């Protein structure tokens, strides 16, 4: 099945900037050293199991366009095994270092939770066997607690404690598999952890439930010896009207309230940042500023559409700012760049799936190289250091350290006549353009 689906396609190789081959890398040279690490070790690409192998090309107004062979049969487990073969073939063709999955992406829902868990473990056995000889590793696993109708009112935030209990059983199984496959993180995406109307919602009750749910997950992580962080993925809306993990700032406040900052970090996505009214760079910088940065879903939205289009990330300038921030902080630890991205529903050929990944991997590589040069030359960092230089004086440091009262600072103000200084926005925009 896997070789037939990608019939005639050779493994993707680095061919250099002059290549016009859509299935050849122009900038992603995995062994090239960048800021002290191999490029592959900086970017840590992960293939998303759900969009690449599970999404059939549907939208709210149209049915399947991606008629994949492993989606057309009646035996759900047989199709899941076929899908695993295709997935690992694609990992091989792209030389991908990581992949990521939801439990329901890899194994079908059973007649009850026990059967669903058995299905998941059966496919995990296949993954485990394939990973013994494959290069690919697991960046993270997670549980789909938003697709089934039982979760229409949420999972951890559901008003029915039986649904909450079911969610605990499902997430435990997903965590167990993630741990067994040596996953480097575990992600919680609260697709329906929010509300559609306040007329039937007890916000405090639901937030307390979500806090308790995550606290139990953290306790279990430590109990089984899972070393990676739990990651929350912020998103403001869609499918719910309002989701409790709205943006980085909102999630930080939630984690602080429920004493989860030590064990829970954030998985940030460009498309979700835009839906929250922020730039991608804003959300990443804020996560670093609050010490909750974890990982990235590398995609983009459509500026003309107000929903989550999950397109492949191709904006080199935007990616450069992302990589500038990541490099500035020493690079990824357990996180990486996960392709939470869908090919368009008109891109129906098998090679389209590979071409999309190759093009986005190249865009990320270009951004990484530009960011390295900008940091080496202090192109953005230098002007920022200069702008805040006044805070390095002994008096300014004393103010921030709490060594001056309001009366003392106000008294010093009487002898001052501060004048504004240019923020040099257009100059800095021109600097960024020079590198990208």
UniProtKB/TrEMBL annotation:
<dbReference type="GO" id="GO:0005737">
    <property type="term" value="C:cytoplasm"/>
</dbReference>
<comment type="subunit">
    <text>Homotetramer.</text>
</comment>
<keyword id="KW-0479">Metal-binding</keyword>
<dbReference type="InterPro" id="IPR036237">
    <property type="entry name" value="Xyl_isomerase-like_sf"/>
</dbReference>
<feature type="binding site">
    <location>
        <position position="308"/>
    </location>
    <ligand>
        <name>Mg(2+) 2</name>
    </ligand>
</feature>
<feature type="active site">
    <location>
        <position position="102"/>
    </location>
</feature>
<dbReference type="GO" id="GO:0000287">
    <property type="term" value="F:magnesium ion binding"/>
</dbReference>
<feature type="binding site">
    <location>
        <position position="233"/>
    </location>
    <ligand>
        <name>Mg(2+) 1</name>
    </ligand>
</feature>
<feature type="binding site">
    <location>
        <position position="269"/>
    </location>
    <ligand>
        <name>Mg(2+) 2</name>
    </ligand>
</feature>
<feature type="active site">
    <location>
        <position position="105"/>
    </location>
</feature>
<protein>
    <recommendedName>
        <fullName>Xylose isomerase</fullName>
        <ecNumber>5.3.1.5</ecNumber>
    </recommendedName>
</protein>
<keyword id="KW-0859">Xylose metabolism</keyword>
<dbReference type="InterPro" id="IPR013452">
    <property type="entry name" value="Xylose_isom_bac"/>
</dbReference>
<feature type="binding site">
    <location>
        <position position="310"/>
    </location>
    <ligand>
        <name>Mg(2+) 2</name>
    </ligand>
</feature>
<feature type="binding site">
    <location>
        <position position="340"/>
    </location>
    <ligand>
        <name>Mg(2+) 1</name>
    </ligand>
</feature>
<feature type="binding site">
    <location>
        <position position="297"/>
    </location>
    <ligand>
        <name>Mg(2+) 1</name>
    </ligand>
</feature>
<feature type="binding site">
    <location>
        <position position="272"/>
    </location>
    <ligand>
        <name>Mg(2+) 2</name>
    </ligand>
</feature>
<keyword id="KW-0413">Isomerase</keyword>
<keyword id="KW-0963">Cytoplasm</keyword>
<dbReference type="InterPro" id="IPR001998">
    <property type="entry name" value="Xylose_isomerase"/>
</dbReference>
<comment type="similarity">
    <text>Belongs to the xylose isomerase family.</text>
</comment>
<dbReference type="GO" id="GO:0042732">
    <property type="term" value="P:D-xylose metabolic process"/>
</dbReference>
<feature type="binding site">
    <location>
        <position position="269"/>
    </location>
    <ligand>
        <name>Mg(2+) 1</name>
    </ligand>
</feature>
<keyword id="KW-0460">Magnesium</keyword>
<dbReference type="GO" id="GO:0009045">
    <property type="term" value="F:xylose isomerase activity"/>
</dbReference>
<keyword id="KW-0119">Carbohydrate metabolism</keyword>
